[in-house]
Structure formats: structure tokens, C-alpha cells
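Posted in: Structural Biology > Protein-Ligand Complexes

Title: Requesting predicted complex, fe (iii) ion in pocket

I'd be grateful if someone could produce the C-alpha cells for the following input. Sequence and ligand are given below.
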Amino acid sequence: MIIKNIGRLIGIQDPSVRRLRGREMDDVYCIDNAWLRFYDGVITGFGEMRSCPLNDDMLDAEGGIVIPAFCDSHTHLVWAGDRSGEFVDKIEGKSYEEIAANGGGILNSSDLLNSVSDDELYDAAARRLRQVMAMGTGAIEIKTGYGLTLEGEVKMMRVIERLRAGFPMLEIKATFLGAHAVGRAFAGRQGDYVDHVIADMLPLMAGKADFVDVFCDKGFFTVDETDRILKAAAPYGMLPKIHANELDCSGGVQVGIANGAMSVDHLERIGDEEIRALAASDTVATMLPGASFFLGMPYGSARKAIDAGCVVALASDYNPGSSPSGSMPFVMSLGCIKMKLSPERALNAVSINGAAAMGLSDRCGSISIGKNASFVIYKSYASSLPYIIHAYSEPTIAAVYLKGQRI
Ligand code: NIG
Ligand code: FE
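-- Reply #1 --
Done. Output follows.
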């Protein structure tokens, strides 16, 4: 199959590039008036229209631009019910932390999750996956963390595995987040809950979870507890991808880096010390502007982090409490509008660096020969990267292909 008459093929990379650091994020390689060929779900060639091979199976992009499918490296897409009631409480002035402290928030989602069947959970998650695929997501990380009981966490992992089987056109990575909040049965016994996570939950996640996560923040898990969990997960081959510095300068960034984290995520509250540590490490700094938008929190200092030499990714944080949107186009727009990233930096943050944060940049995140044929074709009038980003709610997408399959 060949896509012809692409107005601009955007996001080309040498297949050996795994991540973009600092000012490397300033560049996006493009070909104007291009074609793109793929076979068996993989990109096999691209070039300028004047050298376009002839083929029986050709689709005309009619001058529309093409970008790599989005790599969303941080989501909580499996959940039950919704938290629209808390949304109303927030409008009336309650903070995210107050709602959590009163037994709402994550614990509310945990109660809901433990009361539904696998099928119900799967159907709701599959609906969300179909929605984000239609918005151009081609690779996604999904966390547990709404079970908070042994059975609930195992159920979530079962559902993630079923999603992986049901959506072969997507790349799905699974993260075990047993330490998202203290399960109700352990109220007032946080240390015992951490022991339970380590002794009972972790072994059941072996071979299933690619990564381990801890909500290391004020009012949730401490740096020492985080360190214990990450070290206990290491022998199972689960690399850390942790929640850090959302609510406070919690030490989460440092404990993540010390444990060789793939990424530390959120980072609404970081100072020069954290930025320096990230710039000197291989850990991806993942920021989640959708959570800042929804909760009215500060936006992470993405621009400063890039200027300082960090590898920065942006992800959706899709979840029912702090970011009920999995739209990566919107994340990219927030990156530019609110974090003052250039369109090039924003695209790199939601593609190649998002892939890096999931250990998937050998397969995803750019237009490269040998990578997945996963890309987004835009309508011809939306003729540039700045256009699609600035028109942040316009339905500019013409078609999405994931592993060569039209969605
Ligand atoms: O990334 N901060 C912790 N966890 C999620 C929110 C989970 C929830 O509120 O349900 C987040 O924002
Ligand atoms: Fe999150």
C-alpha cells in the first residue's frame, strides 16, 4: 500500500534514533510532496512524489500532512464508573487533595472497580481505546492502581492483557501501580499496605507488568516506601515509571532516577535541582498538561527542562479523576499554548520521546523504515503542524492508520 500526494510528511527519523534530548527536540524532519509505502504493518519506504513508485493499491492524501501516530506513555485507562460527582465538588471549590482525604478520589474509583465484572471493565476500557485510536494514538501505556486489593489489581492486569489481545494494531505496555493509594482495608496502616504490595501483589504481576509505578507524593507514598517498592520490583524486570512531584517537591524525581526509572511523570512542581538531575540522567521527564488543565494546577516547566538538556515527553494521564481526556492532539496543543513549546518540540514530546518513555522507540514514534506503519493523515486544508496544533478542537484528522490498518 502506498499513500501518495502527502502535502508534507512530518516526523521522519533515522531508525536508530531512540530519544531526543534538549535542543535536539527543536528539529522535525519533513519531506514536502511525499509518498509513504508500507507492507505487513511496517513502513517500507517514503520519498518525494516525483520518485513515487507505481502500485495497484494507492491512497491519495490529497495534499494533507502526515505525522507519526501518538505515543501516550502515561494513562489509567482501565476504570469503572465515573467521577463526575467529584467534578462538581471541585467546581464548588474542593481541592483534589481534600476529596482524596475524605475517602473520594482514587478510593472512590477502587470501590467502583471492585464492584464490576471483568467484562464490564473491559467494555468500558475498549470503548476508550477506540476513542483514542480515532484521535491518533498508536502506542499506549496503561496502569493498574484502581484495584488496591490483590483481587482488584489482578483483575485490572487481566483486563489490560485482554485489551492487548483485542487490539493488535496498538502497542500496549502495562504498568503495575498497586501503590496508587492505600487500599481501604489497610486504612491507617500504610506500612502494612506497602508490605502487602511487595510480598503479595508484586509476585503475581511478574511476567505481566512491564513497569512498576508508585504515587510518590505528599499525602500518598513516601520516598522511602517508593524506594522499597522499586527495589523489590527490580528482580522481576519491572523498570520504574513513577508519579512524582505533582502535589509537592516530594523527592520523587530523585528516588526515580536513583532506581534507573524509565520516566518520572507529572513534575508540576520541580525546581532547578530536579531539572539538573533529570538532565544528567537517562530518565524521561514526562509532563501531563491535561492534569494541570483539569485540576487548575501549575503546568510543568517543560520549556526550561528542554533548554536544560532533559528528554521531555508529554502524555495524557487519561483517568477519571485528574484528566478525563485521552486526546493527544489536545495534549500537544496544551504543550504549545500553556507550556510555550514550539510545535516541533511538542510533536517530538508526544511521539519519539513518548515512545522512549515506554521503551518502544525501536518500533514507534517516527516515520522510519522498519517501524510500525502507524500515522495520522490530516485534511488537506489543515496544511501545517502549527495549524493542527493551534486549531485545538477542530476535527482536522482525515484518517488514522495503525500498523497498516485503517482505523
Ligand atoms: O496521575 N496522581 C495520581 N494518579 C492519577 C490520578 C488518579 C485519580 O485521581 O484517579 C494522576 O493524576
Ligand atoms: Fe497518572
